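re: that chain from earlier
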Amino acid sequence: MRVTSTTYCRVIFLAVFFWGMGSIDAAEPVLARLCFFVSAGEVDRFESVYQTDLVPLLKNHDLNEYSEPSRAMPDSVFARLFAVQSIDDVKKKREALDKDLVWQEALKRVGTELGREKFGFTFNLYSAPDTFKEVVPAGAGEVVAAGAGTSQWQIIDEADGLPSTHVWTVFQDRSGNIWLAVGQRGGCRFDGQQFVVFTTEDGLVDNQVGAIFEDTKGDLWFTTPKGASRFDGTDFQNYTLVDGLAEFLIGKEPELVDAKLIQVILKKLDRHPRYHYLIRDQMRELTGSASLSLGQDIREEVDTIYNSLPDQPYRLSSDPAKLRIYLKDYEHLRNADPNSRKMFTLLAGIIIRLDKSDKYEDLVEMMRPFGREIQPVFEEALKEMDKKDPDLQVILMTAESLLMDMENDNG
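^ sequence. v structure.
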């Protein structure tokens, strides 16, 4: 007997069933479902890419497709089933995929081929064997006739003007209009005849709308990661971090509202993981200055260097195991403390191990301005690497050369 998880539909299907249970000793396996969200016309094309680019990486995580077919899915969802050891193992496998940089790079590459800025997946519990020890009869219940209904189902998609089939929120205002939050495409209004799409170009604070609701005045509110937008039917009024911080400053004594106080606040926000792409620009808007006195801001420089790195770095390294550690540490620090100068140290550890790249010499030159703080990277390489390994000679020679140049510069 198999107990399957209930399926919820918001254009995507997710399965969640008693999360956190331990191992199950049963003949029937625990099944997890891997889903990718693609346009209906891209499914065949994606399946080919999936087989060549993603299946080998899944096998690295001991994930092999299960023969049982999945329940019917929307045309825009590509799904496959996998047998795992336990319900807990579903979560462990998903976390392992999230941390696998090779897998993430492959998803970016597939997304680029499909013309997507972002391309994600879900990996959730699909079904598990029945392990209940006690069975309680449900009873007869109450049967209520559904009736004949008043209309038929009508499917509306991009061909009808919907900007995306990834619909996260549906809301009906007091005038009867239907409002939808559609993935990364903003919000749209449907009056029964046509769709009107609202994005940042129309004044919306951000295109990633999470929720839509109506206040007592009849104004509509859109919540996004960058703040909230209020729409009165004609114009958007946006509320962001700037508004909250400005309100805080105005409440202080006038003589305290000076550059020093602002700098104190900014330095606290400077370590916020979303500072680089969200908070910094809003701080500049608040202070009216393009230059904040927070010390050197290295974020754009770091991003420029990282974006210069070649694709598929593991194939371009004679020391892929250590390269993986540096890449993982870089991603972690970029989220936790993106303006840390240790970013240069981690970049140096990555670059020096890309010895098989045809742009290796140019990449090495990019490290020279980093300063002496990257010296421990080269000392570590000379200390830990096997000097007799012929495959590591390029890395070792480069590390030794850079150390000598540093000593000469300081001498």
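The first strand starts at residue 2 and ends at 4.
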